User: Fold these one by one.
Assistant:
Number 1:
Amino acid sequence: MKILWTTLHVSDLDRSIAFYNGLLDLPVVERFFGNGNEIAMLGETDGTHLELLCKPGKPETVGQGVSVGYAFPDITAMGEKLTAAGYQVSPIIQPNPETKFRFVSDPDGYQVQLVER
């Protein structure tokens, strides 16, 4: 298993990019809009990324909602395994043709994102 990214919910994407990229020199790998959200992926191209996620008009998620994404070859099978173990797994979300994911909460309630690319 490989850690893909950690998501931080931010209130202003440009301000956050200015901090992580402009001050900390974390390269911006990708920036896009999806499902009404502004998203930036920062880090080395083939390394673990920091995902900055801005949900305009939803400041209640700022400072909360940290999730860790893990790569799996088959998130359907992994979802079945987790469900069999008694965990609730979200439906599959597919923001683009190359990526699909789903969420599950760990025993302490932290969000884990199961990612298939």
Number 2:
Amino acid sequence: MYKFLLVIPFLILNQSFELHAQTQTPKNFIAFDMDYATFRASKGMVHLEIYLLVSRTEFKFIPDSGKYHSEHNIEVRVLRNDSLVAHDNWNRIDRTEDPNSIRSTQLLPDFSDFVLSPGSYNLLVTMTDKNAGISGKRQVDLVLTEYEEGELIISDLEFATEIKEAEKKGIFTKYGRDIIPNASSTYGIEMPVLYIYCEIYNFKSVDGEEPSNYQVEYSVTDLNGKEMIKPEPRVHKKPGSSTIEMGGLNVVSLKSKGYYFRIKVTDLATGAVATRSKKYFVYRPGDTQELTDAEQISGFGADGYIESVYTEMSLKELDDEWAMMKILAYKNEKKLYKGSDEEGRRQVMQKYWQERRGQITRDEFMLRATIAKQQWSGLRPGWRTDRGRVMITYGKPDEIEREGHSINSRPFEVWRYFGIDGGIEFVFVDKQGFSNFELVHSTSRNELQDYNWIRWIQVSSTGQGAAIGR
């Protein structure tokens, strides 16, 4: 099954760091972004939409009748208790007259969707370059919840690169509009407007009156809850018990880091209120990620902003964020969190950032975690990998030295930090050949130290690591 390709030229967040020195690494996996959103389906069911985004440069182009083409396969699997419950599989062909004209900012969006019953699932997406024979994988655990009748509620938010009138119906068409998904959730100079799509359910009718109005408010906060953008609310007439919301917000004035987009809907007849928020990222070339002292202080705002962020989170969202925060947590914090109820966990997380005031802000922490997720996620989240943990703990390295696979050596990376403890290094080796770089040595006194680490790089004639020092 072949589907058409749509190319979106815009600047996405370059998570490859600006480095002083590095060697070219042979490409051995496909990197792509994935996002999803859920909407109401028939009674008792949930409509799951899956969004993908990949750069054209991820694929190998080969000669084809005087031109060139790449071909890749996408497979989407939804599992429940290790059993396959939904499946989609298709090929894409991309053609060009000149492969040298292809840029990393030329992006290919894609889409798949299923109607599923509520419950817990595992979503696994595999993208394979059929010309190069290499693949990339992304997976995520899902909990699908039914959009029940009753209280006013907003669906998940779909971030988009563009919303326009549909000339003809395609895979991105909804209600006569083409909504091009932005699975990277990243915006910037060349993509200044954050477009969103969502659905609103359960407006109540007022007896004896014409359909009344409802109000929609957009706002943007930083990851600590500080309000950055808040345009004037808009008022609409209710079309019935449900409606859709499509709109955009210019976010190019914001600095490069993570933010929350928030939508608030108020039924002006009943006073019912519903909110929904989602993280996104701004990247502007030339921005520094270093926060000033004033920004670090104002980011906490007498702890009110941190408190507001965690107040809106569900227990699962708290636990998911805490799983990353544990990387920097003290032993007593881990013990206290484990033994606390939901409200207690919110307080532990709020105090966590109070204790680290002047060391690292939640903004910076979440940015590091996002880089780890987008760079190294595969069969497990990127922040759980060794490189992800080091990124979250120490930040972006000042220099990375990379060496690819050769006959006598395995791929490895050396990360250097010049401003920590007089200069420290981390050595990561791809021991198994699956792009899972493991930490084998560091000069930091708090990390694994193995000054005979070179043995992990060397390959013997049998293909096994050399026995030096074993």
